[in-house]
Design brief:
This protein is of the alpha/beta class. The chain is built from 27 helices and 25 strands. The chain has 4 domains: about 70 residues, Phosphorylase Kinase, domain 1 (2-Layer Sandwich); about 240 residues, Rossmann fold (3-Layer(aba) Sandwich), CATH 3.40.50; about 230 residues, Dimethylsulfoxide Reductase, domain 2; about 120 residues, Beta Barrel (Barwin-like endoglucanases), CATH 2.40.40. The longest helix is centred in the first third of the chain and has 18 residues. The chain is globular and about 70 Å long. Bound molecules: ligand MGD (2 copies), iron/sulfur cluster and molybdenum atom. One ligand MGD binds next to strand 15.
């Protein structure tokens, strides 16, 4: 395992296995895994021959051996002994543990009805079979539906309003741009491959890299121009940029007339959205806004790479839509290396009907909101949508007691005596600690799956490369075994292996079989230039880019089921791109705005268990402007408490002048136990559903700050 044990000749003989990174990251890197024999792995490398990965992976995945061979991995099914959350466990056989789960689910259903059971999952693995197979069990058993909103909703909703389709110019074209605008994504940290292509453009063509964020993060440090806006004000910046473009004759009118819905209306609306107006809102000097507008107005090949981060505000869908409009005003979409891009999910569809049991779905069954697990578990009627309380859960690939908003409610819910929770996990996470039954799960190299990359254009295979240790079993196994015990294993989609499911999905897309795809490793699904650049029209019925969104009528890919309605103060969503104060504005009691931006060495709650990642991140810190720190009597490294009506959390101050006054940032979702009092950063985030289709505004919090 230790690289030092190998000289270069031995290294050359190490077997290499091909896979895909399973983590919840837009890059979905194609991987080359050193197989050392005896089910051990060495370093993981990015596949050089994959045109998007281009040989690069992030450091935390390169050292995956630390996670796969971690001594703390769960190895045995555990059944709670003692009170909930106290930490007492008894080992059990798989048979006994699964029997117990099935028995509890049946009992819950008998007491209420099937909707009392809520299977809950997310993207801890992005593999379709292991991630989404739980849906098959749900639909077969008529358990409560899952409206998976936490990550993409605010962003996708905003994007869909403009372009009408979740796709855009080939991300590899960033390497052929003259200007790459990296907006609200900390790409160096969260999707390193964006940088590979952007930096290539700078090296080869002298392209400018612009970063728009709320602090001078690792990505901004690599940029030519950094724009530090106040959180939740990106739409104001976008409006002022477009104001300048119209004002100074940099709008492409031929393009606007042909491809957009109401350019004259937009121009008139923007007349008063001057750089000075935006300066007061964003905190940016008007001259910086003018310069940015001039740059994108005179550089036709500008590629706007729009991330998730700036959408995690209550007005985040408005911000995403506004930023995506700029490329339509300049007409950048027409050029190679130009246009706007958020996600390619719309081009990477695989038919998962059989896998997810789509045909078994009963439309009368209620849905519950993923992000609102706190209100759901404490039994708030508006969160339960008229159905019974949730009294039984199966949780796979997610750690809600740590990552979900309004953590105090989430924990209070999990501690209910009348709730039975089974958590299938790789580690004893904050959520597993609150469970009744914990089942040990395999890791990606130990099972077969197939992956799609939202930030690129590949479908990539991740075949099983090593045997799992004795103990952990796959998600697929758990779903199949529960189906047998719950009397639904005869239904379509059950009784198949992982490979058979992959064969069906690949076959329906004309991509061969598991075996043939294994040779090919991945498939490049990039549509032709005209289609990707919308030269034949945008995704709406009228083929136009929409400056005027239909906020509540749009069929977004993750719009809530009709039975859930539309959320938030949607009547305040603007007719044209605009700044709306739909954020948790700072007030006298809460003078600071808090964002919970990602940590480089963690991935959500994953990798918080590996020693190198932990050591590199140190401890939970709060980035605060030195002048704010001075005013509050805070010193570097000092204990600092932050709070709002939802709770309080203690961190350590890190004085940092790459941030605006009045803004504080806590990087990373540390395990709850890493904080004093055992309560994590999500104690402070809100579980209200933002307009119009929900999501988790985790970077949109007002707080007070004081020395602790
Ligand atoms: N290392 C690492 N990689 C990750 C993750 C991780 O936790 N750590 N998480 C993974 C997941 S699940 C996802 S969805 C992706 C998300 O990846 P990104 O798209 O990068 O989104 P975020 O990580 O939420 O935040 C990105 C940036 O947005 C900034 N931001 C917050 N509010 C605003 C705002 O109002 N305006 C602007 N302009 N910027 C703002 C944050 O400060 C942060 O620097 O990354 C994935 N990759
Ligand atoms: N404050 C704050 N909160 C946030 C965010 C933020 O930026 N700030 N980001 C939000 C976002 S964008 C997201 S996507 C969520 C993500 O939050 P989570 O959904 O919790 O995501 P992860 O930490 O990636 O993965 C969760 C768990 O999946 C497990 N896992 C991985 N593979 C498998 C498998 O094959 N089988 C099983 N059974 N388990 C597996 C891992 O061990 C890990 O504990 O967090 C959200 N919460
Ligand atoms: S950059 Fe993202 S997809 Fe690539 S290896 Fe790292 S976590 Fe995985
Ligand atoms: Mo996410």
């Amino acid at each position: 395992m230790n690289e030092a044990n190998f000289n270069s000749t031995t290294l050359a003989r190490i077997d290499i296995g091909h896979s895909a990174c399973p983590h919840d990251c837009p890059s979905t890197c194609a991987l080359e895994v050193e197989l050392l024999g005896g089910n051990r792995i060495g370093r993981i490398h990015g596949a050089k021959s994959n045109s998007y990965t281009a040989g690069v992976v992030c450091a935390k995945v390169a050292r995956y051996a630390d996670r796969l061979h971690h001594p703390d991995r769960l190895m045995k099914p555990l059944v709670r002994a003692g009170a909930k959350g106290e930490g007492g466990w008894k080992e059990a056989s798989w048979e006994a543990a699964l029997d117990l789960v099935a028995e509890k689910f049946v009992a819950a259903e008998e007491r209420y009805d099937s909707e009392t059971v809520w299977p809950y999952f997310y993207a801890g693995t992005m593999g379709l079979v292991q991630r989404d197979g739980i849906e098959r069990l749900r639909h077969a058993k008529k358990y409560s539906g899952f409206f998976g909103s936490i990550c993409t909703n605010l962003a996708w909703t905003g994007w869909m309003m403009g372009a009408g389709k979740l796709a855009g110019p080939d991300p590899r074209e960033m390497g052929r741009s003259d200007c790459v605008v990296i907006w609200g994504t900390n790409a160096v940290v969260t999707q390193v491959n964006v940088m590979t292509h952007a930096v290539r453009a700078r090296k080869e063509r002298g392209a400018k890299i612009v970063v728009v964020d709320i602090y001078e993060n690792a990505t901004m440090k690599q940029a030519d121009i950094g724009l530090v806006v106040k959180p939740g004000t990106d739409a104001a910046l976008a409006c002022a940029v477009m104001h300048v473009l119209f004002r100074d004759g940099m709008a492409d009118w031929a393009y606007l007339e042909k491809y957009t819905d109401d350019p004259k209306g937009l121009e008139a609306h923007l007349k008063s959205r001057t750089p000075e107006w935006a300066s007061a809102i964003t905190g940016l000097p008007a001259a910086e806004i003018e310069a940015f507008a001039r740059l994108v107005g005179t550089t036709k090949k500008t590629y706007f790479r729009l991330g998730y981060g700036f959408s995690r505000q209550r007005n985040g869908s408005v911000a995403m839509h506004a930023a995506s409009c700029i490329a339509a005003v300049t007409g950048a979409w027409q050029y190679e290396g130009g246009g706007a891009f958020h996600s390619n999910s719309g081009i990477l569809k695989l038919n998962t009907d059989l896998l997810e049991g789509t045909r078994l779905r009963d439309p009368k069954i209620r849905y519950l909101d993923h992000s609102r697990i706190g209100p759901v578990l404490v039994g708030r009627p508006d969160a339960l949508h008229g159905g019974p309380p949730v009294t039984a859960m199966l949780i796979q690939n997610t750690n809600p007691a740590n990552v979900a908003p309004e953590q105090r409610l989430v924990k209070q819910g999990f501690l209910r005596d009348d709730l039975f929770t089974c958590v299938h996990e790789q580690f004893m996470t904050d959520t597993a600690k609150l469970a009744d039954v914990v089942l040990p799960a395999t890791m990606f190299l130990e099972h077969d799956d197939i992956y799609k990359g939202g930030g690129n254009q590949h479908i990539t295979l991740g075949p099983k490369l090593v045997e799992p240790p004795k103990g952990p079993r796959t998600n697929h196994f758990v779903i199949e075994e529960l189906a047998k015990r719950l009397g639904v294993s005869h239904l379509p989609g059950f009784g198949m292996t992982e490979r058979e499911h992959i064969d069906v999905m690949l076959g329906k897309k004309g991509l061969g079989t598991f075996d043939t795809f294994r040779e090919e490793k991945w498939s490049d699904q990039q549509p032709p230039f005209e289609e990707a650049h919308y030269l034949n029209g945008f995704g709406h019925a009228d083929k136009k880019f929409h400056f005027k969104p239909n906020w509540t009528g749009q069929a977004a890919p993750n719009r809530p089921p009709r039975s859930m309605g539309v959320f938030g103060p949607y009547e305040r969503l603007p007719e044209f791109p605009d700044h709306v104060d739909l954020i948790e504005v700072a007030d006298e009691a809460h003078p600071f705005r808090l964002a919970t931006s990602p940590a480089r060495n963690f991935l959500n709650s994953s990798f918080t268990e590996t020693p190198v990642s932990k050591a590199k991140e140190g401890r939970p810190q709060l980035l605060i402007h030195p002048e704010d720190a001075l005013a509050l009597g805070l010193e570097e490294g000092g204990r600092v408490e932050i709070g709002n009506t939802r709770g309080e959390v203690v961190l350590h101050a890190k004085l940092f002048d790459g941030i605006r006054r009045g803004v504080v940032i806590a990087e990373g979702i540390w395990p709850n136990s890493a904080h004093e009092r055992g309560e994590g950063i999500n104690v402070l985030t809100g579980s209200d559903a933002p307009a119009p289709y929900g999501g988790a505004p985790v970077h949109d919090n007002h707080v007070w700050v004081r020395a602790a």
